[in-house]
Amino acid sequence: MQILFMHVRFEMKTVYGFDNLSKLVQAIVLIAVSSCSFNLVGAYADQADCGQIHEQITHDALAATFNAANLNLVERACDSQSKPGSEAASETRRHFGDENFPKALAYMDRQKRLIIDFSAAADTNPLDRARALYHLGLLLHTAQDFYSHTNYVELGAERLKEKNGGSIKDAYAMDLVDWTKLSAARTNTLQSSREIYKDDPTAAQGKIICGNSTYFKVAKELAVKETIRQWNSVEALIKLRHAARANAILSAMKEASCPYIKDLDKFPEEEI
User: Which of 28, 66, 96, 194 is the most exposed place for a label (fewest CB within 10 A)?
Assistant: First the structure.
């Protein structure tokens, strides 16, 4: 590349003169910088750059359940869905990023099926154990995003006001979503748009006061509770599917070592 550039520089200087060459180089640099800026804007225009909050939520919910290494894999898988510029970050069904809620629910159901399938050998096969934990992280990311990417918290605040004569005594008394009713709810008042995202405490919607808290803090607390509920659901499904081996499988997922997956973008479709 260096030789090619030197050759181009020589030809341009010979034919067009040094001043024109300088202007050409400046133009190339400007185009390159503009292209980089555009790509960055595009990346942050999707669901990216909210990975840290997912790590906090997952840790708060499951730190007492998994050993540090296995929890780290779940957290990294969860965070991978927000990697700037990735296909996962721009795929709205993984983030409740639009009002096609059935599509997001179908994605969550698929992750649960993959967890159950890979868990079949989780007590004896470290790679399948890692795969099951990886898909747990994907499931949790989507479930957590529901509370920060829809107006569920806002609607819940209105219900609390109606119940308490116009005031919110305890914003954290809000119930978790009933997933079985979600598809019908979207035809009424439940919505999703970037204007109401609250996965950042400094976001306009996140800073809004909600009783004794803010929308951001309430959405985060609901996401922690939802993470616990999702894991409990996975546990129940494993016990139902694998019966007598379920305890060994669950113990392995929580405590047995897993191979470290360096590049989660290629996992689990490709071998390590």
Answer: 28
